[in-house]
UniProtKB/TrEMBL annotation, chains A, B, C, D, E:
Keywords noted in UniProt: Cell membrane, Ion transport, Membrane, Transmembrane, Transmembrane helix, Transport
Principal cellular location given in the protein's record: membrane
Protein name from the UniProt record: Bestrophin
Location in or out of the cell: Cell membrane
Stored InterPro entries: YneE/VCCN1/2-like
GO cellular component terms, A-Z: plasma membrane
Protein's UniProt keywords contain Zinc: no
Taxon lineage: Bacteria, Pseudomonadati, Pseudomonadota, Alphaproteobacteria, Sphingomonadales
PANTHER family: UPF0187 PROTEIN YNEE, VOLTAGE-DEPENDENT ANION CHANNEL-FORMING PROTEIN YNEE
């Protein structure tokens, strides 16, 4: 995630970090060059039939609406993903307090919290598709999950918590009230995990991407025909601006629709996991680590 | 569900798998041909009165807005359906952990989990309208539900879980805390089931389909009258593009509004059921099966 | 509710069942006739001042947006109503399972389920404003609610369940866990009932209807002035189409905003009540009745 | 709240009750008069420069979108307020049933219900800013809250219920199950109260009002410049219509954004409180009062 | 938060308090001056090529839609933040009532409530980035949290409540029912806190700000080219108005997207904390303080 203040004058003109410009520059320049070619051909080869701009108005507004819809859906995915991870953080904090209240054995408490932290890291590694994440492996090891071979599945950490609770129940160090309270907390974590999995594994329908990119390119390729008459050599500039706005939005949308990726706009899962460690440290009797700070405006 | 990366240049130009083009090609070509006919008639038979493009602007924007509304509603249905199935998956995982915590008898636990898996498959078979699905029949059989005749209703699997719990309660192997916890889990599954049934059985109001398809065809049939003058022989191209955009969106919408169908954009219920089996396998002491993989980009 | 497949070619051209055309035909024809009158007057009496179409563009787009807003709000009401009834169905199923788990007396269980079914029918009769619905009266009678005079209020059925539970509690056939579980279920039903009442008793603000219908008519009455010049005798056709789109959407909206009515687009409350009876039949040891089937595409 | 059927032909033409026309007539007429002045000046003093209508298209559409956004936000406030009050009604009904199930002392039960009714009336009086509402005072008095001085705060009624429950708990007439059930109900009422307070005390950001009204007036004041050429003496009519649509919507929005006011579109809090009294009467062994009926289409 | 009535005529013309005008005046005047320069250059240096206004229509509508989207997202953040703080207020009131019901020791009750109030103030100080807020320090001190060094984290206050409850549980002054009830309340507060943290720490994606401000400036800088012909010396006025509308909305959006800031549109956290103190005073046996009143229409 990029963390910068409201863009000032200089940033507006020159900021590259966090901007979508570097990604779409080739396409924008290509389309502008194509427009220039059309103008040149119109002047030197043969005059194109002049096309009124009105059909392009409808086309452009329809395209804006569809891009707007897809942008909305992508932003909703991004924000829902953030809500789910925020909910997991709250669940971990509540879990720590509820173990204090309901779990009699201090060793059980510590193990349960370490398993919860391991879950967070394993969940993050799976969401980010890091099959051999070192931090997750360490967290899993500290919680007593198998340290060799592939990383355990996040479910394995939660299953271990359930087994721990079942054993405590049988030992009499967890009464019925506590069993219900902690089982509900576990279920809430499970729900948050399933929600994040849903977003990670079910992309926006592919057919939208195809429809919208194809329509955008068609629009930008046909636009010179409408502009060559009224705008002349300014046509490439206008085509470039239109391409910048539409392709820029399409690209941002593509980014936000994958909130667990490694793009500049992806969610700061590392920082959230760190916050969880900070929040649970007092309950484990440990010194809390430092919060993660953005590097070059980027919080990972 | 189609699983492909962001379309690259070649896909944009040529991808057919996951595209809506094959479905709407006949209509698009038909409307373009009609436009060509209008141009030909205008040139060789009798000149049509020239109609200003402005009324078409309003008409086109109104149509875009209504298509946008219907698209929104369809996408919401699709995404809510995915949420409900994701919630069912979470419920099954929590159910497995809670049986470990609250159900004393191991045999009861195993039977309860097998019934839960049978529910998932029966629910899937009903949503997909597969009255004799072999996988669902096997799952029902393993859970001890009647193996002959028509498939049992999904409710039957949940009713059997309730009976199992009531017997355990009477036997004293399930205490009051556990009865409440497991009954709440069952109610949560019931709610998810009812939600998915609602989407499957209550389509978008038919009157919208009629209104929108009629309006779209009217628009595409009248458009040549506005384009014959300014665009000439390019009119069929423009009409084709407009038809592609509007009919394409209408068709995608129709697909997404039925998220449990067998279309390329339908939800991957098979894969979700498989994930449930993988998640419950450790609780049943079984080897988890392999996750389903997409075939030709398609996850069933 | 109309249940038809995606409209094919013939339906698009001729379908009347489920279409809004019969309702708005008089207004549409009237407005087209008025447009024809304007053209005739312009040709034979005195030429009207030509008005540019641009103001109509803004007017038309603003009108589309406001119609779109109202349509959204109406569809949300319709879909929320369906959700609430779906939730009631889920609550009834869970109630049946929870009585099995928590209510010791079989007679109490049967009476509680019959009261729940009576509630559904009384609730339906109130929503549909059927003060003397025979099915509801029968259901109330079977549950032991007063059979004479006006139909009991839906609340009376739920109050009777509460009294039944309180008596069971006092008799010792319902323990504390069960009392909480069943009271929560009752509260969930109560919430669903209040939600449906809210939709039934609080229509969309009347001021919107007035504003939107007045604006739509103003638009259709002024439109001929803008079209008489450029479109000539085609003006009535265009006015008719515009009136069809705008009045059609306004009328559909009016329908969906009253989801408990008797219009073709109203919710199939009869069918939902029947599904509840089917779901509860096994718990009552009865043969489940047949599900309701659509008649002439209409599910009541 | 205005309760009228779908407007028929006569109402469309003449309905004043529930219409926004009387409120905005002065501004609409004023703006139309200004437009007439511009036309007169253009004809008799000096010709204004002709301005193309296109900039007004963008301006008008942008304004429509912003008005649409604010209208959406206002309607959401109105509908959320209605949901919260509907939720309170459901909570009161559930509270009555749960006291029957869990509170052993009949006197406590009656007092608790009277306190709940007093809460509703005090909450209504606070939302409507009626510092000396007679009905609320009576209800508070019947519940044993201080009858003199300023009205008690709604919180005082809920605090008294909590104290009543704490005393019952200490006396042994309320067990742990009941304490949890009734405390959860109280918390649910508290949440509904806080939600309604939020809407009452946090208006839509003032800056929106300023921005939108200023923009609307700017638009209506500049519009004559664009219409004076093409529309001539019809310009005042067009300006009047535009002002009617935009100011009408802005005014309705202003109304709906304050759902607890005394405007025709405000929520019928009196009627909801009466419904609560009707619902609780059987539990208090009283004759239910009559429901409130609309007076001149208006339900208070 | 600015608290003013619906703007009247004088306010519309002159209100500055709560208006966005002072913030954006420099940019608006700068852009208008640039437009004047373009007109002057066009008249005295060399005639610019005339550009049709149509491309600007599409551009302007696309820009309106994107601004509208961002405005929606920002308003949702603002309103969700308000909901979360309203929920915290409700949680505190319920917490007070539940301690009365479930916590036997009066000293524990008082300490728990003081800790809850300290949490509110610490949470507010963190959200507003006031690392040394005097009120928060006092509240923390009164609750027995460390009075020296940096302010304690809000989590510390909640952790202390959990420890207090665990001790009471061990002492036998809190039974299982109460432990569950109060743990759930604590979890609800934790969830509200995490939600507010999410909004405070995860701004709207920076890439949107960049894209929208860049597009807005591009639009306003190119607009004179389209207006210089038809509008002449009125062009600067039009450009100024367009800049006022678009930049004004962008700026308001920027404000609302940071609901915990110190801008005029930020949420009144001080007032909400004061309301919490008023609500809890009777439970602490204290005289409630006065509610905060707006100063110069501003409620902090």
């Amino acid at each position: 995630m990029i963390l910068r203040d409201k863009p000032g004058f200089m940033q507006l003109a020159f900021a590259v970090r966090g901007s979508i410009v570097p990604v779409i520059a080739p396409q924008v320049l290509g389309l502008a060059a194509f427009a220039a070619l059309v103008v040149w051909a119109d002047r030197h080869l043969a005059t194109f039939p002049e096309i009124e701009a009105t059909p392009f108005t409808v086309f452009g507004i329809a395209l804006s609406l569809f891009l707007g819809f897809r942008n909305n859906a992508a932003y909703d995915r991004w924000w829902e993903a953030r809500k789910l991870w925020g909910g997991l953080l709250a669940d971990l904090r509540s879990f720590a307090r509820e173990t204090e209240l309901f779990l009699a054995s201090e060793a059980d408490r510590a193990r349960a919290l370490r398993l919860a932290l391991a879950f967070m890291h394993l969940h993050r590694a799976m969401a980010r598709r890091l099959p051999d994440d070192a931090t997750a492996r360490t967290a899993a090891g500290r919680a007593g999950l198998s340290a060799d071979g592939p990383l355990p599945r996040p479910c394995a950490a939660l299953d271990s918590i359930a087994t721990l609770l079942a054993n405590a129940r049988r030992d009499g160090t967890l009464d019925g009230y506590g069993a219900r309270a902690l089982a509900e907390r576990l279920a809430s974590i499970t729900l948050g995990q399933a929600g994040a999995e849903r977003i990670a594994r079910t992309p926006l329908p592919y057919v939208y991407s195809l429809l919208i990119y194809r329509t955008t390119y068609l629009y930008c390729l046909l636009l010179p025909l409408a502009l060559v008459g009224p705008a002349g050599w300014l046509a490439p500039l206008f085509v470039g601006i239109v391409a910048y706005v539409f392709l820029g939005l399409a690209e941002v949308t593509e980014d936000l629709a994958h909130p667990f990726g490694n793009t500049p706009n992806a969610l700061p899962l590392d920082a959230i996991c760190r916050t969880a460690e900070i929040s649970l440290a007092p309950h484990l009797g440990e010194e809390p680590p430092q919060p993660l700070a953005p590097v070059d405006y980027y919080l990972s």
